[in-house]
Amino acid sequence: TNKPRLYSGMQPSSDSLQIGNYIGALLSWKRMQEECDALFSIVDLHAITVPQDPAQLRENTRRTAAQYIAAGIDPSRSTLYVQSHVPAHAELAWVLNTITGFGEAGRMTQFKDKSAKQGADAASVGLFAYPVLMAADILLYRTEVVPVGEDQRQHIELTRDLATRFNSRFGDTFVLPEARILTETAKIYDLQNPTAKMSKSAESHAGVIWLLDEPSVTAKKIMRAVTDDDASVRFDREAKPGVSNLLSIYSVLSERSVDSIEDEFAASGYGAFKKGLAELVVSVFEPIRARTLEMLDDPAELDRILAGNAARAQEIADQTLQTVYDRIGL
Ligand code: ADP
Ligand code: NA
What we know:
The protein is mostly helical. 55% of the residues lie in helices and 9% in strands. The strands form 3 sheets. Strands 1-2-3 form a 3-stranded parallel beta sheet. The chain has a two-stranded parallel sheet with strand order 4-5. It has a two-stranded antiparallel sheet with strand order 6-7. Helix 10 (215-223) runs antiparallel to helix 13 and helix 11 packs across helix 13. The radius of gyration is 21 Å and the shape is globular. The structure holds adenosine-5'-diphosphate and sodium ion. The site of adenosine-5'-diphosphate has 19 residues, from helix 1. Belongs to the class-I aminoacyl-tRNA synthetase family. Its main location: cytoplasm. Keywords: Aminoacyl-tRNA synthetase, ATP-binding, Cytoplasm, Ligase, Nucleotide-binding, Protein biosynthesis. It catalyses: tRNA(Trp) + L-tryptophan + ATP = L-tryptophyl-tRNA(Trp) + AMP + diphosphate + H(+). ATP binds at residues 11-13, 20-21, 149-151, 188, 197-201.
């Protein structure tokens, strides 16, 4: 095909995805899979850079795959697979480690943040080399487009630097990928702490809307979302972060402009606005939740889909790896 090659992925770091993963990643993946030759990975090798429970990780991986499909990633059109099923990821990562500067890797701000949280002695070499594995993920597939959040921009830059370095030392091998950074309204904040990004790994889950929450739980979380006492439904990220976040969610899920939603709720209080939002979120997530649970009831079928897709990914990845090995003398 002459469609641009797209690669993206998510860690299986919880048993449910959260609404930010849906709005910031899955929704745009679903749209982009139409015009791109897309690979979507569940990056379990990345997930083990922090301590994991083996049974839980295996379960989370399957659940993440089911949620990708339920949210609209079509495994017969896109390649949806589990990273560790394709050994070339770890093999290319090793090669790229050998051309990555120690200082260069040490400048990655995400490593600095994560290792500061874990404590310098607890952080592993795997956590340090995380961005190099990510570079391998992307470069293996001759990826042109990588849809990511702003926090991944530096990792894509590193990927381009490593590709350029390898190409100039060993001959033209890798395609230089472009980051496609998410828009500001696609960034969702914690409902209880609306200046912090909503995250699967947030310490408190009170302000996190999970895709697999029961409808009544979702509604309750939205009704309890932190707002302000100005009582006007108006977008102002600085002065009104809570209301602005709810407006972003409303706008993306209804495919309506923020203006038109402000107009609709101009005369009503926050109660009516939140109630409308809760109904909207439940109407979007309820079918996704039902479909996910249905797929999890048939693990053999899900495993069959993942194995077929991993075989497709492996075909491309092995070609790149073979070229790399040839070029470097292995
Ligand atoms: P999490 O913080 O939930 O663990 P990840 O860091 O694994 O999420 O990111 C997975 C994908 O979801 C990425 O593409 C990321 O940009 C997107 N994403 C995560 N949280 C949000 C959010 N709060 N708003 C928008 N997009 C998000
Ligand atoms: Na995370």
